[in-house]
Amino acid sequence: MDEYVGRAYLYWTPDDWLAFRVEYAYEKIKYDETINLGAERVVTHSVPLGVNFFHPSGLFAGLKATWYYQDGRFENWDTATYKTADNDFWLIDAAVGYRLPKRYGIITAGVTNLFDNHTFNYWETDYKNLRIQPDRQFFLKVTLALP
């Protein structure tokens, strides 16, 4: 298996209350004939665009839109042949939170795949560490930093 990975990013904070992010990730995987896991070649591009708002009171909010484009040669399980396919789609994530006084922790509530987009075919290159969940997910995260 040959794997090529690249990443570039730009973060900008024009104000104490506001932060922007633009990223680009590239991944190209060529599988060996003996271990292909259903694909011969997969190329994935992703471009996350995000904005975060931070209030001095400790409240914060964030919105991230990520564009994915993936193409490759995938195995057709019915005929045991390979076909070329590509797909592109957007996923939107959002979160709100509160930083506890004296930086004792953070409480965050959010949602991934906000609009419950199911219209994509995505080949996960690392099936043990999924990057994309196909369903909308709500989460609550509590991080404590006690002295």
How many helices? 0
User: What is the strand tally?
Assistant: 7
For the sheet with most strands, the description reads: 7 strands, antiparallel
Kindly state the mean pLDDT as a whole number? Answer: 91
Report the principal-axis shape: elongated
If strands are numbered along the chain, what order do they take across the biggest sheet? 1-2-3-4-5-6-7
Query: Percent of residues in beta strands?
Result: over 45%
Query: Into how many domains do the coordinates divide?
Result: 1
Q: What CATH architecture would you give?
A: Beta Barrel
Structural class: mainly beta
- What radius of gyration results from the CA coordinates? 19 Å
How is the secondary structure organized here?
Layout: E1 2-15, E2 18-30, E3 39-54, E4 59-76, E5 81-99, E6 105-112, E7 137-144
Antiparallel strand pairs: 1-2, 2-3, 3-4, 4-5, 5-6, 6-7
Protein model, in words:
With 147 residues, the protein is an all-beta fold. The chain has a single domain (2-144), classed as Beta Barrel (Porin). The chain is 0% helix and 65% strand. Strands 1-2-3-4-5-6-7 form a seven-stranded antiparallel β-sheet, with no helix packed on it. The chain is elongated and about 60 Å long.
Keywords, please?
147 residues; mainly beta; Porin; 7 strands
Please give a quick description of this structure:
The chain has strands at 2-15, 18-30, 39-54, 59-76, 81-99, 105-112, 137-144. With 147 residues, it is an all-beta fold. It has one domain (2-144): Porin, CATH 2.40.160.
